[in-house]
């Protein structure tokens, strides 16, 4: 079965990518050593005294970062698939409903105003998460009407809200014109895994995992939804209800991801399309392949981000776009790919 | 399984589009719903496939009030071809037809052998089996329409509701489809614009005008020159072809608009 082989190949590719990426960086560790350190960390085994520094780099600095990259890459790709089905728009990505700009306002607001000092290092993430959820709720309320929430109304409201939040962001930066605020804005709008620790990983990993499982269980309703709301009704699917549930689910998962990594663009837009070109449109396959592809891609993007001009880091969003745009355009031109018509 | 509208009123954006419609589709019969643009035909059938909830009145499916059934339950008995079919994703023809099985499943389980055979038969009946692996977005309008009807048949319904199924079809496939509808043995409610096709196919016709049922009966009873003039506002001559009333247009002389 071609599909099974493809998925197995992607799982292996993801494992190898994670292992290599953990070893690579300012201090390079051989893959065999990387594997040994990880094994020691997980099983409580022993390592030689001279290796403690390498071990710490591998286990405490790089491993959480690389795993977070894989998790967020996979999550963004899956949520991208879901949001494109939800709003029935090929241009949609996880951030189209205002989540990322809301998160930026929340995060920058918290870091600039210095509130919630008691939460320590988690204050900014909490601010981002709450900002993301607030943005989702606002978009939902504004887009709601008696006739239900139409996909186009949702997209237009999300885009309009995003402009509003960006204006708020500009006002914040204008009022508090220091370098810290500016770099915080860059961090949240372009994304970085620089803040990854084992402490922040479980919450986001669990959220993404639950999101993936739920979305995959919704494969068939998602397929039906793409036939249009009228046909969906005739097939027993309540399009408005499904859309509501998807909205809540994708907002929570995106919010959790943005809170730890900022808004990494392009992955959630392009990976779903690239995957559909290869696997076809059925969500059953797309929702397994897309997260794996997203995870592999993000691990390598993060590696480039932290090694290309080390010790400085390039913003992730810049790399995903620089790599993704040409690949996407080549694929679009080579294969007859249709979304919503010719 | 019979389908019956009982005093059904449907309101859209504060306007009554269907007004106290009572109409019965007896089990196994083909009933055509005809009427001018905007007379409420689509709105009436949307209530049957649950895209719209009637404001008042009841739609009976057999002896069950449709409103008391879950959407999924009613979708196991009622399949529909809707008027607006916005396909977004480039599914293959066989994938779209297989989605007709959606109401019969919970979760993601794959189709069984019987269901796959069912889908294949549906595709053959609509003459789209040779397109099975083609992407639906690359099909012509008529091919796509036939795929969507095959999908409705794969649903194994007892009641079939079709909103202008002959749209985009060439005359061979129009005739083929209507013969199929007659021979399926299902209870069929079909919205048709072409009164000649409606007369040739349907056991009974219901005529809607401004949301009200203004005539119903056999095509022979319903399709009169007087009714066409009154409801549709155009003059026709009715002839009988093999016992079926057919309309011949009587257009005014050239230049009469000047």
Automatic annotation (TrEMBL), chain B:
Swiss-Prot/TrEMBL keywords: ATP-binding, Nucleotide-binding, Transport
Domain ABC transporter: residue ranges: 3-235
One Pfam family this sequence matches: ABC_tran
Example GO molecular function: ATP hydrolysis activity
InterPro entries registered for this protein in UniProt: AAA+_ATPase (IPR003593), ABC_transporter-like_ATP-bd (IPR003439), ABC_transporter-like_CS (IPR017871), P-loop_NTPase (IPR027417)
PROSITE patterns from the UniProt entry: ABC_TRANSPORTER_1, ABC_TRANSPORTER_2
Protein name per UniProt: ABC transporter ATP-binding protein
């Amino acid at each position: 079965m071609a599909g099974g082989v493809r998925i197995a190949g992607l799982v292996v590719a993801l494992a190898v990518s994670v292992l290599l990426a953990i070893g690579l960086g300012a201090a390079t560790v051989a893959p065999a050593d990387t594997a040994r350190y990880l094994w020691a960390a997980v099983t409580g085994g022993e390592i030689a005294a001279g290796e403690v520094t390498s071990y710490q780099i591998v286990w405490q600095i790089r491993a959480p970062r690389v795993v977070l990259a894989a998790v967020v890459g996979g999550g963004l790709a899956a949520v991208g698939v879901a949001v494109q089905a939800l709003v029935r728009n090929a241009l949609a990505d996880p951030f189209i409903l205002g989540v990322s700009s809301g998160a930026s306002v929340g995060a920058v607001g918290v870091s600039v105003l210095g509130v919630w000092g008691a939460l320590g290092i988690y204050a900014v993430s909490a601010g981002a998460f709450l900002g993301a959820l607030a943005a989702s709720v606002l978009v939902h309320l504004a887009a709601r009407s008696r006739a239900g929430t139409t996909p186009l109304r949702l997209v237009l409201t999300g885009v309009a809200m995003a402009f509003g939040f960006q204006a708020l962001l500009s006002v914040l930066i204008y009022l508090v014109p220091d370098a810290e605020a500016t770099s915080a804005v860059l961090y949240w709008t372009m994304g970085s895994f620089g803040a990854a620790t084992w402490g922040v990983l479980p919450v986001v990993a669990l959220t993404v995992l639950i999101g993936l499982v739920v979305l995959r269980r919704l494969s068939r309703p998602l397929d039906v939804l793409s036939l249009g709301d009228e046909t969906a009704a005739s097939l027993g699917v309540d399009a408005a209800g499904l859309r509501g549930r998807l909205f809540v689910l994708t907002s929570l998962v995106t919010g959790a991801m943005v809170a730890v990594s900022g808004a990494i663009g392009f992955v959630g837009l392009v990976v779903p399309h690239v995957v559909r070109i290869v696997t076809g449109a059925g969500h059953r396959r797309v929702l397994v392949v897309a997260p794996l592809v997203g995870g592999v891609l993000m691990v390598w993007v993060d590696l480039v981000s932290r090694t290309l001009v080390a010790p400085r880091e390039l913003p992730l969003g810049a790399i995903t776009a620089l790599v993704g745009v040409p690949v996407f355009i080549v694929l679009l031109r080579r294969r007859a790919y249709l979304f919503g018509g010719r | 399984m019979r389908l019956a509208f009982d005093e059904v009123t449907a309101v859209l954006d504060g306007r009554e589009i269907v007004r106290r419609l009572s109409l019965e589709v007896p089990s196994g019969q083909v009933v055509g719903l005809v009427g001018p643009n905007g007379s409420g035909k689509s709105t009436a059938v949307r209530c049957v496939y649950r895209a719209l909830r009637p404001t008042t009145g009841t739609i009976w499916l057999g002896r069950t009030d449709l409103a008391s059934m879950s959407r999924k339950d009613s979708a196991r008995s009622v399949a529909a071809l809707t008027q607006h079919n916005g396909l977004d994703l480039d599914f293959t023809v066989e994938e779209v037809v297989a989605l007709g099985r959606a109401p019969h499943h919970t979760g993601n389980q794959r189709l069984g052998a019987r269901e796959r055979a069912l889908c294949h038969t549906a595709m053959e009946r609509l003459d789209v089996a040779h397109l099975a692996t083609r992407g639906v977005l690359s099909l012509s309008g008529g091919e796509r329409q036939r795929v969507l009807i095959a999908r409705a048949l794969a649903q194994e319904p007892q009641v079939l509701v079709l909103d202008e199924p002959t749209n985009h079809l060439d005359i061979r496939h129009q005739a083929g489809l209507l013969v199929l509808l007659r021979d399926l043995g299902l209870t069929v409610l079909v919205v048709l614009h072409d009164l000649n096709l409606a007369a040739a196919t349907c056991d009974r016709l219901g005529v809607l005008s401004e949301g009200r049922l203004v005539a119903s009966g056999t095509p022979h009873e319903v399709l009169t020159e007087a009714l066409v003039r009154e409801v549709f506002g155009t003059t026709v001559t009715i002839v009988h072809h093999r016992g079926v009333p057919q309309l011949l247009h009587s257009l005014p002389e050239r230049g009469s608009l000047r």
